[in-house]
């Protein structure tokens, strides 16, 4: 499971736990669910910032660890047609980074989940809590932006 998939699973679990909290019949259940929510928020914060969020000292914060899928950039393709996997040069990596920088965070997440992690549209839609058509539209929009970037800003 990739880090992005794990983050979306946490977010989905938090949404479900919030619903369960709202419909909990007594204070004991609300306390238990509230503690679960607190733990999930803590884990999600840790993933996002790369260090224990409870650390207050600067020395601990500077020694942060970044979560990154090492093969992520290798798997991203700029063309919609699948190609044989190959080693990317440093200039190709820079082009991919530049192309992805044109996308919003949500577009990047969806585009990477579909093209790099090879997740089907319905699974991405379930992870994000949106319709499958929304995912497809976002992928098309991201691909247009990437193609526009590849052409040097020319339509």
Describe it.
With 155 residues, the chain is an all-alpha fold. It has two domains: 60 residues; 79 residues, Arc Repressor Mutant, subunit A (Orthogonal Bundle). 66% of the residues lie in helices and 0% in strands. α6 packs across α8. About 3% of the residues have low confidence.
* Count of DSSP H/I helices: 8
Q: Report the portion of residues in β strands.
A: under 5%
> How many β-strand runs?
0
- Choose one word for the global shape: globular
Q: What percent of the residues sit in helical stretches (DSSP H or I)? A: 55-70%
Overall pLDDT score: 76
Which CATH-level-2 architecture of the largest domain?
Orthogonal Bundle
Largest sheet: none
CATH class of the largest domain: Mainly Alpha
Distance between the termini: 37 Å
CATH topology of the largest domain: Arc Repressor Mutant, subunit A
